[in-house]
Amino acid sequence: MGDEKVSMVFKLYCLTVMTVLAATYAVVVRYTRTASSGDLYFSTTAVCITEVFKLLLSTGLLARESGSLKKLVGILKRHVFCNPRELLTLSVSSVVYAIQNNMAFLALSNLDAAVHQVTYQLKIPCTALCMILMLRRTLSRLQWFAIAMLCGGVMLVQWKPIQATKVPVEQNPFVGFIAIAIAVLCSGFAGVYFEKVLKSSDTSLWVRNIQMYISGIVITMLAVLLNDGQKVVEKGFFFGYTPYVCFVIFLASVGGLYTSAVVKYTDNIMKSFSAAAAIVLSTVASRIFFGLHITTTFASGAILVCVSIYLYGLPKQDTTKLSVEDSEQKSKQKLVCETLIERGG
User: Fold this and answer.
1) pLDDT at residue 5 in the model
2) What's the confidence (pLDDT) of residue 243?
3) Structural contact between residues 50 and 249, judged by C-beta atoms closer than 8 angstroms
4) CA–CA distance from 180 to each of 2, 45, 46, 111 (Å)?
5) Radius of gyration of the CA atoms of the chain, in A
6) How many CB atoms lie within 10 A of CB 293?
7) How far apart are CA 168 and CA 177, in angstroms?
8) pLDDT tens, 38-94?
9) Given phi > 0 = left and psi -120 to 50 = alpha, else beta, which region is 240?
């Protein structure tokens, strides 16, 4: 699957859609949590419904991959219904992702979408640290420099937290930043843990997703009961749902699929452009819809973050190949010198 050839047009299509989805998701969630009129929905139920939709989409894609209903049933029986150990293994990711998704709603309730998008890029150094500790990966000097630049950019953005002028509800930037910090830690760990599980066997990506989403549904249902159980019983599971809330669930469900496509078909540089473009789009949308006042420190920090994302995504230099080439070059130079000496003698 990794050798599939796709056109540049398809790659650009996937990147464009993922960029728009990421930016739109942050803006729409922000709107539903702060600017919409009417009763506020329960974010825990939205996270739970998102897991259900992701499960259905992943099952459909697995059905397409398997080619027949009989094969699909056999795969689900072997890897899901008769394999509780694998479900338990993937439940670790499910718990962490559930926390991350709920923290995203809390963060966007207290921080503007643009500030959230910039600050959320702290997931890059967090993921890098988890990769070093859990997968024994190494980073280049340029990547370490990019991480330092990214942290500096986020510090500038958070130096004087800005608030939108068209948001009628009370906000707490400190609570929003703590929520993002928790979400960032969860994102880094869960992503690397899931990658480690994927690479431990040749099981299909969609099978692993199904295992994770089944656990995710159970875990998010527990979150609904623990956090909003009494309110849900009184007002109903879908209390406060509007077309915008349904749109949020749609964006969260489909966004994961396009992220998988981008990871599969594109490189780090193109993904970096996508992340930077999402920040720009979120900033523009926040300025238009929420009256965000863009300060010099915010603009400077956002630019630093965008540049650092690009630098971090640059491909590593193949030092092994360079060392071989250098040794070959030195051998040739030595041979030439020896020949010249012999001729001179």
Assistant:
1) 61
2) 93
3) yes
4) 33, 20, 18, 9
5) 24
6) 13
7) 20
8) 678 999 999 999 999 999 999 998 999 888 889 999 999 998 888 888 888 889 989
9) left
